[in-house]
Amino acid sequence: MPQIPAPIETRIPDGMRASPASGLFVAVVIIGFLYFGREVLVPAALAVLLSFVLAPVVRLLQRYFVPRSIAVLSTVLLAFILIFGLGTLMAAQLTELATDLPRYQSTMQEKIRSFRGATEGGSGGIVDRMSRMLDGLSRELNEQPAQPTRPIGPEPGVTPDEMTPIPVIIHQADPGALATLALIINPLLHPLATTGIIIIFVIFILLAREDLRNRLIRLAGAHDIQNTTAALDDAGRRLSRLFLSQVALNSAYGCVIGLGLWLIGVPSPILWGVLAGVLRFVPYVGAIIGAVFPIVFAAAVDPGWSMALWTLALFVVIEPIVGHGIEPMLYGRSTGLAPAAVVAAATFWTWLWGPIGLLLATPITVCLVVLGRHVKSLEFLDIMFGDRPALTPAELFYQRMLAGDPVEAIEKATEYLKERSLTSYYDQVALKGLELAQADHARGALNEERLARIRTSLEELIDDLADQEDRPRSLAGTDDPEAEAAFDQDEDDEDSALHLPVLTEEALAPEWSGEAPVLIISGRGPLDDSASRILAQLLGKHGLRARIVGTEAISTANLFRLDPSGVALVCLSYLDPASLIPARTAAKRIRRRIPKAAILLGLWRPSEEDERRELPEEVMTDYRAFTFEEAVRLCLAAATRPKAQGDAAAATHAVQRSA
């Protein structure tokens, strides 16, 4: 029978795979395209962002049965009337400020003289002397070498009249009315052309929004049209709400600042209010820059310092209220960007497109991150610029264990335990991290040195967590069921390990009152002993003492030496799925040596719930657990009542219901 060939996408020749050099070449081409095409790309980017802001208004008008073309044209017209009106108002304020500057000249000179007088002595004198010294050195360096002197008097054969220079006067021809008009219009052509391009792009984007979305779906990949369409629609709505909220909030911020500056008496308050609102689109430093200009100007025009201090107080009060109070309630605590990504994006786009790039840096990067979160082929954008952790908690745990540095893993565990229980941490983070290590070991990627490093680091982490209670720190030391219920309601997913009880000596069944009623037998895998130590620690948190032995303790030669006294339950601890066959043999030997003890098969596989049903029934054990929480629940259920026929099935059913 002929073999079916593999799909085309899985048989890419090595020579056709993307290499780092080709990726670098593509990046250089894209950056060059962005730089040299900025005359067109900057208006296009501004148009895209304006379309996100105006799209909700267009949809609102369409909801009231306004035709789409009329809704788009009226919305764009109103938006640009507001923008032009704002620009005209700022120009008028600048003109007024330039006219009033001579009135403040004497005040500025007096401030400069007072400042200079304050710095005549002490360190200020040193600064002045250093400045004069540097000026002198600069003059010495710039001084031209002396030219050879000529004797005074006329050269031989030249009369004094011939040595008199002749003045030359150049008269420029009258340019005429058309040339003068061209000189006036030329500086305005570029802004007017840019504005016209933006208007055309905005109208086109709003009119052809669905068509552009479909083309973007085709570019991103049409193999899953339903999910991609839903993702892009969701991303568009989120971005529209985000940008519209930012525009509204920053506009209100500028109005409040302008009104406050008007009440204080700062000249041109509208100009400074608009500037503060616009600069607030620049993350981190925009609000600071927007505050510096009016503060410095207030200090320059006021004979005293009260106006500058009141202006400073205005920004100190308003900015925290807006940034830390209103913004989180309006559109969340962040834009979804990593702080380093914001700084890098601001630097990159400013280098490419100048001041406009600085204003567009954050919105453009937000768009890229949202696309990266929804479109699989653009996921690298979310990884590079998003604020979500690059590694999952389990991956970070494994990476720190592999690096032999458990300190960071302990810090992350401490943060995790503020909201979740210790059992949940071991199941959701540590055990999944150990699964990654086991998978690497199975494919031969871990040598003995690295395995030893992982075991040592894990032992240190387990020892450091020995004093933690098996409940969140917010509930540690309390036994209030109402507090636990309220805590559960505040969480997105309930931590069921919160309800694991702590057994006292009186609550234990008679056969569980021994020194170590739980015997944990580790498998032969390199990390099975670490998993056994975690289980023993969790059992101890709930009042069940346990001891750990290795697989060699139940070998034919050593089985008779195994002390069965006080053992009520034996747990076979395996992290490696390939250890099932030894588990069958171990269960048979334990039945012979400790016939009264229940047997729990702990096959730690929290990420493979669908494969649990495939376990062979030949492994004759009373209980089976795949997470530490299940194992602890089963042990606690068995320890609180006498062993009876059918107890294993009832306990297993209870665990399945709780899971």
Describe this structure in words.
With 659 residues, this protein is mainly α. Among the domains are: 98 residues, no CATH class; 94 residues, no CATH class; 81 residues; 157 residues, Rossmann fold (3-Layer(aba) Sandwich), CATH 3.40.50.280. 63% of the residues lie in helices and 4% in strands. It is elongated and about 125 Å long. The two termini are 47 Å apart.
Q: What is the level-2 CATH architecture name of the domain at 502-658?
A: 3-Layer(aba) Sandwich
Note the total helix count.
24
State the fourth-level CATH superfamily of the domain at 502-658: Cobalamin-binding domain
Helix content: 55-70%
Task: List its salient traits.
single chain, 659 residues, 5-stranded parallel beta sheet, 4% strand, disordered N terminus, disordered C terminus
TL;DR of this structure?
With 659 residues, the chain is mainly α. It starts with 19 loop residues before the first helix and ends with a helix.
Write the layout of secondary structure elements.
Blueprint: H1 20-36, H2 38-63, H3 68-100, H4 105-118, H5 123-142, H6 160-163, H7 176-207, H8 209-220, H9 225-264, H10 269-279, H11 286-301, H12 306-331, H13 339-353, H14 355-374, H15 379-385, H16 393-402, H17 406-416, H18 422-442, H19 448-464, H20 481-490, E1 518-522, H21 528-541, E2 546-549, E3 569-574, H22 580-593, E4 598-603, E5 623-625, H23 628-639, H24 647-658
Parallel strand pairs: 1-2, 1-3, 3-4, 4-5
Helix pairs in contact: 2-3, 2-7, 2-9, 2-14, 3-7, 3-10, 8-9, 9-10, 9-12, 9-14, 10-11, 11-12, 13-14, 14-15, 16-17, 16-18, 16-19, 17-19, 19-21, 21-23, 23-24
